[in-house]
Q: What sequence folds into this?
């Protein structure tokens, strides 16, 4: 039984090594990837808040324009065109869809009705102007927020996929380590990996030397050419 | 009757609004320009979803393969236990024969 299990273990080792190679995957890389996923969510919230603040400022500038510049010009014209002063004096009322003289005995009621209509219509007109200027910004804000949400969803999904993949590599490496440990080969693998790193470093240094030498040759060549 | 009065006054207010718009035309153009949302420059330009999804699908497939390898040890252990149980059952049946 023991021998059968050992054989399977060797098979598992060979299979795992073939499948995942000998690269080292530190657990920190999984943790870093996971943290990036969490930080992405925080950056997302911050981004959306900035969008709302940006649009709030734009909308407020347009509302201020209506309140402080457009409404006074509109009201000045509407006070004259709507004969507010005459209505207030009681010399004219709105009756039958036109200006008319007040009916005897109903002056007070007609005056109140007319002033009420004038005020309601003026308020509605100012609100409509604000809406005309602010609605396009609301539409843009909704569209941009939706695009940003979709972009962050995509990034989060991509990062989660990478995190899961890195984690799976870690798991494979653990299985490899256990299998190699059982066969007393783990040190051999680590040793090979370390040697590969050393050779790679040496190759890099060698390349630097070659580059330096090439530069000197070019300088000498240029000197001779003069 | 009340509606007639309301419509009459609304029509006058519309004329006043047109007059205000005309008087402030340049100022309003300037305001709209200064408070434009600059939507296109703010919109994030990320990879298109289709190619992104294709990449994710390939990585997920590879992840599943790795997970399967990682579960190998447990499966082998389970397989060993199963085989041992079957062997015991076979031995028990053989003893009865």
A:
């Amino acid at each position: 039984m023991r021998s059968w299990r050992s054989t399977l273990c060797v098979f598992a080792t060979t299979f795992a090594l073939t499948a995942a190679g000998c690269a080292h995957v530190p657990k920190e890389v999984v943790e870093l990837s996971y943290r990036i996923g969490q930080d992405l969510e925080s950056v997302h919230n911050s981004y959306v808040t900035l969008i709302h603040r940006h649009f709030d400022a734009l909308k407020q500038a347009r509302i201020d324009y209506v309140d402080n510049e457009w409404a006074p010009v509109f009201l000045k014209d509407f006070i004259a065109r709507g004969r507010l002063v005459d209505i207030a004096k009681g010399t004219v009322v709105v009756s039958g869809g036109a200006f008319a003289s007040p009916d005897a005995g109903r002056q007070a009621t007609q005056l109140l009705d007319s002033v009420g209509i004038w005020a309601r219509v003026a308020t509605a007109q100012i609100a409509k102007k604000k809406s005309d200027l602010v609605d396009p910004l609301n539409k843009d804000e909704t569209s941009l927020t939706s695009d940003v949400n979709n972009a962050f969803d995509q990034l989060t999904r991509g990062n989660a996929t990478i995190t899961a993949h890195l984690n799976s590599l870690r798991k494979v490496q653990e299985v490899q380590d256990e299998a190699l440990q059982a066969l007393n080969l783990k040190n051999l693998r680590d040793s090979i990996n370390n040697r590969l790193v050393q050779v790679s470093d040496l190759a890099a240094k060698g390349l630097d030397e070659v580059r330096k030498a090439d530069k000197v040759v070019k300088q000498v060549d240029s000197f001779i050419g003069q | 009757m009340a509606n007639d009065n309301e419509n009459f006054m609304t029509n006058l207010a519309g004329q006043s609004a047109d007059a205000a718009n005309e008087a402030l035309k340049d100022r309003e153009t300037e305001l709209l320009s200064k408070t434009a949302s600059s939507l296109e420059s703010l919109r994030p330009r990320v990879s298109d979803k289709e190619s992104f999804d294709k990449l994710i699908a390939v990585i997920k497939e590879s992840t599943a393969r790795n997970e399967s390898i990682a579960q190998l040890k447990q499966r082998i252990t389970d397989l060993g236990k199963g085989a041992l149980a079957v062997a015991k059952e076979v031995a028990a049946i053989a003893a009865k024969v």
Q: What stands out?
A: Chain B has two domains: 1-45, 47-97.
